[in-house]
Design goal:
The structure is a single chain. This protein is α+β, with helices and mostly antiparallel strands. It has two domains: 52 residues; 409 residues, Beta Barrel (Porin), CATH 2.40.160. Helix content is 15%, strand content 42%. A 16-stranded antiparallel β-sheet has the order 1-2-3-4-5-6-7-8-9-10-11-14-15-16-17-18. It has a two-stranded antiparallel ribbon with strand order 12-13. A hairpin with a 5-residue loop joins strand 16 and strand 17. Helix 1 packs antiparallel against helix 2. The two termini are 27 Å apart. 32% of the residues are buried.
């Protein structure tokens, strides 16, 4: 595919030079420019089809101007099965739940590849939200087979939904016996599967989760924001899993890292989640904010094997500065009380956290993380409308900075303790630069540590880091 793209761009460049040589008049140059622009547009259409991304076209001016939902009929036409009030066509990344592993509502066929399950194939009927009418009951679930672990996996759930205006109340229960991970906030299934299949980099850690969950939730969507409040009871047995495969298309001599052991046993907990979002898309940049707060209480009074509390907050802001640039940041903090099981520890390092550091290099029971990025469309610098300088406005230039803190305190200390030891010189930080597609999904970046001289860590992403 890369070769095809390079050949197409080379042909366009050669054609442009030949056409310029044939006609040097101003009128002729205008005709040539029109013809070249059409060729470039066709080329990028083919590239977009290959990559499945919006690279060439920015949003129309009318879409850029309209950053708020103001028409009642437009609001009534939102996707009826989508919890969020924004159309999927905007390609706005959703804030993954702080506790529950999010599923892609559009997927009916399940496909993933990792070092524990190997190739996993399955089918699912996704959990949907019916905003247009009351549904007494809705059934959802999935079933699939992991060829590496030689195991059938399933989830099956039943929910009852009630609608009042734009308020949705739900009571549900789900039984599951499947491989799970707490690293969904770092990287999605598709990106991780491609990374594992092609280059033998698996950015998630896994365990077997068998049991059930039941919940009550309140969901609402309006012109102001989307909101979800949820309380759930979780009853699960957790089991460690081993690495089962070591195949990838490239880097055949490389070895997958081992899948770490977890704290096994019977977990019973109550979790609380509050999430609120107000996101819009404006000239290929995001605008708005997002916040997720969660708490999980696993006391022995629930007759489980572990006794701990765990708290997390994640706040994100996407701030347009002009039609050309955006300033985005994420603040994430987490703490706990009691003996935190291994799979519940907080970790920093590598993808989506501190990219210049080794993967999960830092681990503890206190966490602070700040990520900030400045994104500017190349058209701010080009000032040209002719090929090849016109290509600059099809890409974003990215400057980013990341800083994080991991602390460890004794199990008997309160969840507020430990942060008093925080000092700026105890932060781990990095900075970097990158280039990305106009829709922000695809990016090639270079990151360096700030505390010591180091070589750049180069990474390619097909989704936003936050």
């Amino acid at each position: 595919m890369k070769l095809k793209i390079l050949i197409l761009l080379l042909l366009v460049s050669v054609a442009y030079n030949q056409l310029i040589g044939q006609d040097s008049t101003s009128q002729g140059k205008e005709k040539i420019k029109t013809r070249v622009d059409k060729i470039v547009k066709d080329v990028f259409r083919q590239i977009e089809n290959e990559l499945g991304a919006d690279i060439y076209d920015n949003e129309s001016e009318s879409e850029a101007e309209e950053s708020e939902f103001t028409k009642e009929d437009e609001f009534d036409n939102y996707e009826k099965h989508n919890l969020y009030a924004f159309p999927r066509g905007k390609k706005i990344p959703r804030n993954n739940s702080a506790f529950f592993i999010a599923e892609n509502l559009e997927d009916k066929f399940l496909f993933r590849y990792n070092r524990v399950e190997g190739l996993f194939l399955g089918l699912q009927s996704p959990h949907q939200y019916f905003w247009d009418h009351n549904r007494k009951f809705t059934i959802f679930g999935s079933i699939g087979y992991g060829f590496g672990v030689h195991r059938w996996e399933y989830k099956i759930g039943l929910a009852h939904q009630l609608i009042y205006n734009q308020n949705l109340f739900e009571a549900g229960i789900e039984a599951h016996n499947s491989v799970d991970s707490r690293d969904q906030w770092l990287v999605g299934n598709l990106e991780n599967s491609l990374s594992a299949m092609l280059f033998k980099y698996d950015y998630k850690d896994y365990f077997l989760r068998k049991g059930f969950s039941t919940w009550l939730s309140y969901n609402t969507r309006s012109e102001f924001a989307d909101l979800q409040a949820k309380v759930a009871f979780n009853n699960d047995n957790f089991t460690s899993l081993q690495k089962e495969v070591n195949w990838s298309l490239f880097r055949s001599k490389r070895i997958f890292r081992e899948n770490p052991e977890i704290s096994e046993g019977h977990f019973k907990s109550i979790s609380l989640i509050f999430a609120i979002h107000k996101l819009d898309s404006k000239k290929m940049h995001l605008a708005g904010w997002s916040a997720t707060m969660s708490a999980e209480f696993a006391g022995k009074s629930l007759k489980g094997d572990y006794d701990f509390d765990r708290y997390l907050i994640d706040i994100r802001r996407y701030q347009p500065i002009s039609r050309y640039d955006n300033l985005n940041f994420r603040l994430r903090a987490a703490t706990s009380q009691g003996h935190l099981p291994l799979q519940y520890k907080f970790e920093l390092g590598g993808i989506s956290t501190l990219p210049a550091y080794s993967y999960k290099e830092l681990q503890g029971n206190r966490l602070l993380l700040a990520n900030i990025e400045y994104i500017v469309n190349g058209s701010m610098f080009s000032g040209e409308t002719t090929f090849p300088l016109s290509l600059l406005d099809k890409f974003n230039l990215i400057l980013f900075y990341d800083a994080g803190f991991i602390g460890n305190v004794y199990d008997n200390e309160s969840f507020t303790s430990g942060f008093q030891n925080f000092k700026f010189n105890s932060l781990k930080s990095d900075w970097g630069i990158g280039i990305g597609s106009a829709d922000g999904k695809y990016r090639l970046s270079f990151a360096w540590k700030t505390d010591k001289k180091s070589t750049a860590n180069v990474f390619l992403r097909i989704s936003r880091p936050f």
